[in-house]
Amino acid sequence: MTQMYDLLVVGAGIVGLAHAYEASKRGLKVAVVEKDAQCVGASIRNFGFVTVSGQSAKDTWRRAVYASEQWALIAPQAGIDIIHRGSWVVCQRPEAVCVAQAFLKTTMGRDCQFFSKDQYPELPALGHANTDNLNLGSSLGLLYSPHEFRVESREAIPQLAAWLASACDVDFFWGMEVLSIDGMRVNTPAQQFLAQRVVICPGAAIHGIAKPYLSHHDLKLCTLQMLRIRPDAQFVLPGSVMTDNSLARYLGWSELPEAVALKQVIRNEMPEYIAEGIHLIAVQSADGSLVVGDSHRYGRSEQVFSSEHIDRLIIQLLQQTLRITRCDIVERWSGVYLSSDVEDAIIEAVSPTLRVAVVSSGTGASTAFGLASDNLDDWLRSTT
Question: pTM for this one?
Answer without folding.
Answer: 0.96
